[in-house]
Input
Amino acid sequence: MRRHPIPVVAGCIMKQHPLRILLHKKNESKDEHGVLRNPELVGLWEFPGGIIEGSESPQLALEREIGEELGIIVSVGDLLEAEAMTFKDNKPYLILFYLCQTSYEPTPDGCCYFRSVDIPAIRQQVIPGDLLVIDKLIRRFG
Output
């Protein structure tokens, strides 16, 4: 079993007045060996992001991942939350959630902006762990 957690970054992209939080529908992500990682999460909503590669800073990794996944540029702000998680693959992950802003106006493909009133209806469709951060965003900015 892996001892050190896999470092992952996630971008909490928001638009305010009223608060809207961007979530991405998880697609089939494969590791460097072509193996589907955490298939139980495919089709669920999540914050966009991914694994930090090599000597990247978390901020640069997040800018790269969101650019690759969504095709948009973000400005990475403050660290909001850090969570240690283990999924069905039994690998430990350390997920760093950063506040982000974007000037990109249309909603990227595979994404949706959810208002705080939308969250109860989609709670069962959100990746575990992301709900805690969503609730924190709503308390802080909603």
In short: The domain at 6-141 is CATH 3.90.79.10 (Nucleoside Triphosphate Pyrophosphohydrolase). The chain has a mean pLDDT of 90. The chain has one domain: 6-141.
